[in-house]
Structures are given as C-alpha cells and as structure tokens.
Amino acid sequence: MKNTILQVERLQTEFTNDKKKVKVLHGVNFHIKKGEVLGLVGESGCGKSLTSLSIMRLFKGTTARISDGEILFQKNKEEEIDLTNIPEEEMRMLRGKQIAMIFQEPMTSLNPVMKIGEQLTEPICLHLGYGKKKARTHAINMLENVGIPRADEVINEYPHQLSGGMRQRVMIAMAMSCNPQLLIADEPTTALDVTIQAQILDLMRQLQQDQNMSMLLITHDLGVVAEMCDRVVVMYAGKVIEEASVLDLFESPKHPYTKGLIASVPKIGNLKEKLSSIKGRVPTPENMPEGCKFAPRCEEAMPICFQKEPATKAFKGNRHCSCWLYDDEMRDVSV
Amino acid sequence: MEVVKETEQNEITVNRKNSYSPMKELWEKWKRQKTALWASFFIILLILTALLGPYITPYDPYKADYNATLQTPSLIHWAGTDEFGRDIFSRIIVGTRISLTVSFISVGIGALFGTLLGLISGFFGGRLDRFVMRCCDIMFAFPDLILAIAIVAILGPGLSNVVIAISIFSIPSFARLIRGATLEVKELVFVEAARSMGASNGRIIRKHIFPDTISSLIVFFTMRIGTAILAVASLSFLGLGASPDTPDWGVMLSMGRDYLGTSSHVVIMPGIAIFLTVLAFNVVGDGLRDVLDPKV
C-alpha cells in the first residue's frame, strides 16, 4: 500500500436530474503508484472526466455527488486520507498543492482578462506562502522549465497573445508550480495540433520523470497512451473493464471493448482495409442495459452477458478484466 | 553610422508594435467612435463645469435683478433671465454640479450594492439566488420613478433622500445584469481551473469573475447616469428633490412652467441642458458597448 499514491475504491458518482438520481459512475476501482503514469481510456461519455472531477471534487455548479466509495490519497509518508469525506477547506488546500489538474482546452482554461503572471503566481502565493517578488521569480522559472522563450516578457502578457501550445505550456507550468504529487491531465493534447501534441507530451513525460510525480492521463487517443503510460485502465459506461500494463494491453487485449478500441486505430500504410469501428454508442446513464453494459455492442456476447454483470477477474501480470469470456464455467456452458 | 541608426530605430518600432497595452487599444477603438468621442468631450466639459461651477458663472446665480426679469436670450444674458431676473445660464452652470453629483453618487451606490448582490447570487445560486432575484422582480414591478417618489415620500423631500431613492431603484437592475454575467463566466473552464489550483470562492469571485463583468458594468453605469439625471430632475420638478431656490435643473423647469406661454426660454434652457446631458451619457454608453463588447 505504501507504494500507492491514490486508490479509488468502488467510486460511485451520481447526478440529480429533476429530482431523479442518475448514477454515472458505477463503482470505479483503480490505483496509481508513485511515479507512475496511468492512462485512463474510453469513449466519450464513459465517465473518464467525471472520475477525475470526482477525485478533485470539482462539482461546484453541478448536481454531481459522490454517493459511495472511497478515494484514498497518500498525503505524506504517514498520512492517508479519504478525499470523499474531508472538509471542503482541507480539499481546497490539497488542490493545486498536492493534486493538480490540466484541462483539455488551453484556449479557455486561462482567464482572458488576467496577465499570465498574475494567474501563475496565484497558486504559488497560496500554497507555498511566497511573497509577490519571490512568487514572480518562481513563476518565471516555471515558464522556463516548460520551454517558454522570453519567459520574463510572457509573464506580462495576456493569454490571447499566446498560441494554443504556449497556453497549454502555461497551464502545465501552473499545475507543476507547487510540485504536486499527482497530476491529473484531462485530455491535455486533444485541442492541439499534432506537432505541438508531441512536444507537449514529451514535456509532460520529462517533467513527470524529473520530479517522480504520479500522473493520471485521461485520453481517448491510444497513440498517446502507448507513448506516455506505464499502465492503462479502460473504462466503459462508468466502470473499469480492463486494467493492464501498456505492453500487455496492446499485445493481448482481453476485453472485447479494448480489442475494438485498438482495432479502430487507423494504421498508416493500410490502404485497403476499411477502418473498423465499434457499432453503436455508449448507453446513456438513464437507460443502462441489464447485465454487462457492453453486451449490446459486443461481437462475442453470450446469453449470460445480457443477464448478469461479470465480476472482475485477476490475471497473470497484474492484469484485471471484467468479462464473461474469461469465466471458464460460463464459457463451457455456452460452448 | 546612418545605417546603424536606422536599424536601431527599426528595432525600436518593432518593439513598440510588440508591446501591447489594452488601454492603447481601447483608445484606438474609441477614436473611431466619432459621435461617442464628441459626446465624451461634452461629458468632460460637463464634469469640469461641475467642478468649477461657482467660479466661472458670468453672474451671481442667486442674485435677483428686478429690472431685468424674464429677458429673452441676448448677448448680455446668454440664456435669458427668469422671473426674478436671475441669469439662467449661470444657474444652469451651477446646477450641473447638483445634477452630476447626485446622479453619480446614487448610481455609484446602486452599482456597488447591485454588483455585490449580483455576484453573490449568481455565483452561489440556489435558494439565495432565488430570493434575491424575486426581490428584484418585486422592485421591477414598480416603474422606476413611481418607486423613487414612494421612497422620497416616505423619507421626506431633499437631495440626500433623492440619492437614496435613486440608489435603491438602481440596485435591482445592476444586480440582474451582473448576475447574468456571473452565470455566464462561472461556467467557463478558467474558473474551474482556478478552483483546481485551490482558489477559494471569494478569490474566484474577486479575481476571476468580477473582472470579466466589468465591461458590461461600465456600459450600464454610463447609461444609468442618464436615467438618474432625468430622475433627479423629475423629482425636483415634482418638488420632492432640491428646495425651490436651488439652481437645480428640475427646479428651474418647475418654477418656469408658469411662464411657458409668455417666456418659454425659462423652461427651454434648462430643458436643453437636461436633454444634452442625458443624450451625451447615452451616446457614450452606446459607444462604450461597441468598444468593450467583443461580441458586437
């Protein structure tokens, strides 16, 4: 346990819609080790972002609420806290200092009417208790660390004077400024073009290794996962369905959904074959199917899949997968 | 040497172009708003008049001259004289101060409380928001002036009570405006990003939401000044504002209305003052909207 920085257990988050409760996360389980990059993949609408927001407890202005489960965070060597039931004020002091977050849209995640410097020094003054001058020096250092040229000028500029890639660098600098133990990156490169994407990913990887920081990388881009992550968690419809190391996952995906995801990545040079895709779409939280939630779209679905949800099974090499295919009894019955 | 100098100069100009200042950009835009530019000069003139009022009047605005009552505008009395022979132009000049101070103070108070209410109710939402907005709706149900009359009727006539009345009826419109802007801004990603960095609610409101609402606040403030000047004049006209001997524009209108048929300038001159002032503030408000609002 000592080696784990974050342990998410049976996490359930629900929204209240017209007095009706709609569960979106149905018991999410995963953990992040120290110094590890964990990829969280899945289609849009499967609860990736909500998982990260649940960890940060950024629910203001929505009706979302964690209804069950725990999120254990290793605050320091001795202390482990459950993020689901600490007071808001304590949570606030964790945000930015120990858990930081990078958002998807660099264009909108900086305040347009505030100078870069002001925004950067905000968390530095708050969490590290630096004075204005010292915070400014620190901010310039951070900007240089993320590869921004003429950092001492950029600090006096407004966000609209920077390009998207530069802004994302600023966001990274801001997130990294207080040396967090865990960085949550919610699709950090989706809004950037490909060449910038590679630069930003390299930068994040390098910073992560320098500081031995843990990272939760949320993405739907399997290319990014292959490049960045140590381990991968695949989510579908508010549940973790597979968990494996990157190599294992790409080499021998177990869950049909994971197989489908990997198969639908276009390969350069493949001109003849039609790009494969997974039929249908993620069911909405209001009408979740019975049994395995992926069954209606699954090509290998068996009768049992429509009746009962599969349990999570452990496999060799520290992998997990929830699918009836790997339940020997069931397989025998159906065969 | 010549060449070197030139390149140096080029570099300097390049640097200038790179250095960006929001104020400079605003000024550039403002210069293109021709009507608003002239209106703003007029407002500056008004403000100067309000400051220097008593020192620049050609005549003593309070001194009666019974040899020269109700004279039509001439070179001696630019705006003519009233029924006591007082110089109307001098009285208008002195009246500028009353009109501007009363309306600026009252709209300022209204804007202050309205903005606070709007920010808080927009940001926190829920029951508080519903309560504040219902209160505003109740206030909106009364026409502004009727509400002001009612408030002055309760508090008693006098300019300070006019200030209170106008502030009170300004609050709900500011609250509603700022609440709307807050609702819009608080959903933006940078607010969430700020929260993810550990910023407190108070800090988010102060540093991230309020600055984003300022542009609409400035525009509305300017427009509201026009309304307030009208309201001050109306209340004075009804005898609820300044006392009858004060050189207030509304009072002058009210006192002069008996002579409307015979010496109409007594009413027309302060009327023009009110008209031009309100017009100037509205035009400037419109111009500010064009300059400050990126959506227009």
Structural notes for this entry:
- The complex is a heterodimer of chains A (335) and B (296).
- Chain A is α/β, with parallel strands linked by helices and 335 residues long.
- Chain A has eleven helices and twelve strands.
- Chain A has an eight-stranded mixed β-sheet with strand order 6-7-8-3-9-10-12-11, sandwiched between helices.
- Chain A is globular and about 65 Å long.
- Chain B starts with a helix and ends with a helix.
- Chain B is built from eleven helices and no strands.
- Helix content of chain B is 76%, strand content 0%.
- In chain B, helix 3 (34-56) packs across helix 4.
- Chain B has 296 residues and is mostly helical.
- Chain B is elongated and about 75 Å long.
- The relative contact order of chain B is 0.13.
- The A-B interface holds A 56, 58, 60-61, 92-97, 100-101, 103-105, 108-114, 118-119, 122-123, 126-127, 157-158, 161, 171, 174-175 and B 20, 22, 125, 186-190, 192-200, 203, 207-208, 211-212, 214.
- Chain B: This is Glutathione transport system permease protein GsiD.
- Chain B: Belongs to the binding-protein-dependent transport system permease family.
- Chain B: InterPro entries: BP-dependent_transpt_permease, MetI-like, MetI-like_sf, OppC_N.
- Chain B: It is found in: Cell membrane.
**Could you list the spans of chain A in which at least 5 consecutive residues all have pLDDT below 50?**
none
- CATH names the topology of chain B as MetI-like fold
**Secondary-structure element order of chain B, N to C:** HHHHHHHHHHH
Shape of chain B: elongated
Query: What is the CATH class of the largest domain in chain A?
Result: Alpha Beta
Q: Report the structural category of chain A.
A: alpha/beta
Question: How much strand of chain A?
Answer: 15-25%
Question: Unreliable runs of chain B, pLDDT <50, ≥5 residues?
Answer: 1-17
How is the largest sheet of chain A built, in terms of strand order? 6-7-8-3-9-10-12-11
Helix content of chain A: 25-40%
Q: From the alpha carbons, calculate the radius of gyration of chain B and give it in angstroms.
A: 24 Å
| Biggest sheet details of chain A | 8 strands, mixed
Compute the number of strand runs of chain B: 0
